[in-house]
Design a protein that fits this description.
Length: 287
């Protein structure tokens, strides 16, 4: 047998011995892939949530610039709630100073409860539509269709007219300007399931996650699990930071707000109090 014939024969024999993966080998590969996915998915989910957190804080920093420009054009006063003008909603009053409506939207809250989604920690308060019956059905807002967002103002921070201020305890409670003592503890704009509110230290925590409050206990409007049991907030000194949910009760919402109220450690709150009122928050750090 020639050398060439020998090589050809060995080549054919080698080809005949080639085979594919066995079922067992395929199952092993699939199991390894599934294991890797189970390890990677939580990490990817955390990375996605962290990205939303970073973008939310970036939005709020831009709102600092917006509010600063507004105050420079309005004798140093912060935009205030006025129920006799369309500008009693801050997104309308500040409209000339920001270009993108999405700046009003926290990336962790994009489900519009005005479109039928159940109010929750991740719901947004838009979209304004004059044809729909909702709390946004405000005749003063005619011409502002399409308004939406998921941030809310601390209405005590603004320059509310006297008749509004009287209805919420008097003008002496309102901050009105950015440059005030302790500005780093005074909320200006935060994650919220309404356009804003008038929080008080006696407000009860929400009984369950995402509870919607139309009237009363307005601090609950900001008590939302958007960023791993926290929200992001912009303060009067233009600082932006994460706010733990129980920490909401020790911020200085208005000049007479008691930061040692009944839901704080200084007010002798106990874990059992949280367990009875808001069990979903009981395990969180106390303030």
């Amino acid at each position: 047998m020639s050398h060439e014939m020998f090589l050809t024969r060995r080549f054919r024999e080698g080809r005949g011995q080639r085979r594919g993966f066995t079922l067992v080998e395929l199952l092993v590969v699939i199991a390894i892939i599934a294991l890797l996915m189970s390890i990677l998915m939580p990490a990817l989910s955390r990375a996605r949530e962290q990205a939303k957190d970073v973008l939310c804080q970036s939005n709020l920093r831009q709102w600092c610039t917006v509010h600063t420009m507004y105050t420079e054009d309005n004798e140093g006063y912060v935009v205030g709630y006025d129920d006799q003008s369309a500008e009693h909603w801050w997104p309308i009053a500040l409209l000339p100073y920001y270009g993108e409506q999405d700046l009003c939207l926290c990336p962790a809250a994009t489900r519009f409860w005005s479109e039928g989604h159940k109010p929750s920690s991740i719901s947004a308060w838009g979209i304004w539509d004059p044809e729909k019956e909702a709390w946004l059905a405000d005749e003063l807002m005619e011409g502002y269709e399409g308004l939406y967002g998921s941030y809310g103002a601390n209405e005590f921070s603004g320059n509310a007219p006297e008749h509004v201020a009287e209805g919420y305890g008097g003008p002496q409670k309102f901050w009105r300007r950015l440059a005030v003592k302790g500005a780093g503890y005074v909320p200006l704009l935060l994650g919220c399931n309404m356009m804003g509110g008038f929080p008080e230290h006696i407000d009860f925590p929400p009984e369950y996650e995402g509870k919607f409050e139309m009237g009363g206990d307005e601090l609950a409007r900001y008590c939302l699990n958007r960023h791993n049991m926290a929200i992001n907030g912009l303060f009067l000194d233009c600082s932006v930071r994460r706010i733990d949910l129980k920490e909401l009760w020790v911020l200085k919402w208005h000049r007479e707000f008691m930061t040692n109220g009944p839901w704080t450690l200084a007010g002798l709150v106990e874990r059992s109090d949280w367990q009875r009122q808001a069990p979903w928050m009981a395990h969180l750090k106390d303030y």
